[in-house]
Amino acid sequence: MERVTITIVIVAAVLVALVGSASASECTALVVKVNDEAANRLDDAGYNARQLADEAEQLDKQGKTAECEAKVKEAMKQLGI
């Protein structure tokens, strides 16, 4: 019975780690999407979106996924996507 409990705890820990890394890669993909869209624009929205994407990328590198996603969503809103 004790082995089963330990196995369940280990499996749960691995799943949590995988979900966290998937979220981080999603944030990275969104940063790339924003940068691709902003690269075609020369207006203030494009400039602001690139700045926000840079901030999001730094947050992503620091492991602050929730903050990264918030910045990316703000940048996407600036671009209308």
Beta percentage is: under 5%
Question: SSE order, as H and E?
Answer: HHH
Radius of gyration: 17 Å
- The dominant shape is elongated
User: Total helix count?
Assistant: 3
Percent helix: over 70%
User: How many distinct domains?
Assistant: 1
Largest sheet: none
Mean pLDDT: 81
Structural class category? mainly alpha
| Span between termini | 52 Å
List low-pLDDT spans. Answer: 15-22
Account of the 3D structure:
By secondary structure, the chain is mostly helical. It has one domain (22-79). Helices cover 88% and strands 0% of the residues. The protein has helices spanning 2-39, 44-61, 65-79. α1 (2-39) packs parallel to α3 (65-79) and α2 (44-61) runs antiparallel to α3 (65-79). The chain starts with a helix and ends with a helix.
List strands and helices in order, with pairings.
Blueprint: H1 2-39, H2 44-61, H3 65-79
Helix pairs in contact: 1-2, 1-3, 2-3
Task: Please sum up the structure shown.
The chain has 81 residues and is mainly α. The chain has three helices and no strands.
Descriptors for this entry?
81 residues, mainly alpha, elongated
